[in-house]
Amino acid sequence: MDSALQGTRLTAFDSCKPIISIASADMDLNQLEAFLTAQTKKQGGITADQAAVIAKFWKSHRTKIRESLINQSRWDNTLRNVNWRVDLKSQSRHIDQINTPVAIVEMELGKNGKESDFLCLEFDEARVNQMLKKLSEIEESISTLTQTT
């Protein structure tokens, strides 16, 4: 590879490093200002003009950049939508289960830019209660992990 071309690629990549750091930390305006000030004072860092351009770019495109990073970091399908309804069971192997209420839950799963898959589940009252209990446990675990001490 031509060394001039390789040098240009490295320079272009190096100029993206501050934006990658800013986006990864999801910096607010105060953090952004402090970070860019530090970068301008660092030997081999960025110029004040570059800092101004980066700040303007981040302020204008913060949401899009964050969404793009999040979408790129997902490797599996995500839950796009949930629909549900309650029906009465009209057919069953057991006669005593006919006309009992059931929850029908339809989940739309997909990855950005790809076609969705749909998952349809049927829950009786006991299964709905079991699912709610598990979801409460998940919520409690997330709350425990995200609490600030």
Distance between termini? 52 Å
Q: How many strands, what sense, and barrel or not for the largest sheet?
A: 3 strands, antiparallel
What count of helical segments does DSSP give? 4
Report the structural category. Answer: alpha+beta
Q: Going across the major beta sheet, what is the strand order?
A: 1-2-3
| Strand residue content | 15-25%
- Let me know the number of strands: 3
Proportion of helical residues: 55-70%
The gross shape turns out to be elongated
Which residues form runs of ≥5 with pLDDT under 50? Answer: 4-10
Instruction: Return Rg in Å.
Output: 25 Å
Domain module tally = 2
Q: Order of helices and strands, N to C?
A: HHHEEEH
Question: What topology does this entry show?
Answer:
Blueprint: H1 3-25, H2 29-41, H3 48-73, E1 78-88, E2 101-110, E3 117-123, H4 125-146
Antiparallel strand pairs: 1-2, 2-3
Helix pairs in contact: 1-3, 2-3
Family: Belongs to the COMM domain-containing protein 1 family.
Pfam family, one: COMM_domain
InterPro entries: COMM, COMMD1_N, Murr1
